[in-house]
Amino acid sequence: MPTPPALHWSVDNCTVERAMSVLGEKWTLVVLREVFTGIRRFDDMRVRTGIPRQVLTNRLSTLVENGVLRREPYREPGSRVRHEYRLTPKGFDLYPVMIALAEWGNRYLADPEGPPIEYAHRDCGAELHINVACADGHTVESKREIHPRPGPGAHPR
């Protein structure tokens, strides 16, 4: 059996691995799901998700440190200043990732009555779907048309 060409290239600077170091833990994506659906306050996230307090604190800190979320102060009357968490431009760029994860989960893991969340186009209300297109604008119809190859930052092994 011939050696796969990918074995000739290093993965030391892999951006997928780097992205997963920020996003690759279950609770991180649950936190992002909450923020994308408008839940921005720590206590609201805790109540809605059941994430342990320290885990939620750690996940929010990681997302803030990596520029995915920003802390925005607010104060309820008679209370101390607290923070809510808002998406940064870097965070908003994760929308396609969230939609793709939800679409995959809705297809393969939803309850018989259907998915618990759908992403829709605000203007017309139609459900959103992720499509793959090349830089020249061609829509990729079959996943088998996708060919991973070394990029400009690839280093020989």
Number of separate domains = 1
The helix/strand series, from N terminus to C terminus, equals HHHHEEHH
Strand content: 5-15%
How helical, in percent, are the residues? 25-40%
Q: Identify the overall geometry.
A: globular
Number of helices: 6
Residue-averaged pLDDT: 94
Pfam family, one: HxlR
Keywords: DNA-binding, Transcription, Transcription regulation
Protein name: Helix-turn-helix domain-containing protein
Provide tags for this entry.
Helix-turn-helix domain-containing protein, Arc Repressor Mutant, subunit A, WH_DNA-bd_sf, DNA-binding, mainly alpha, 157 residues, 6 helices, two-stranded antiparallel sheet, HTH_HxlR, single chain, globular
Give the arrangement of secondary structure elements:
Blueprint: H1 15-23, H2 26-36, H3 42-49, H4 53-65, E1 69-75, E2 81-87, H5 89-92, H6 95-108
Antiparallel strand pairs: 1-2
Question: TL;DR of this structure?
Answer:
With 157 residues, this protein is mainly alpha-helical.
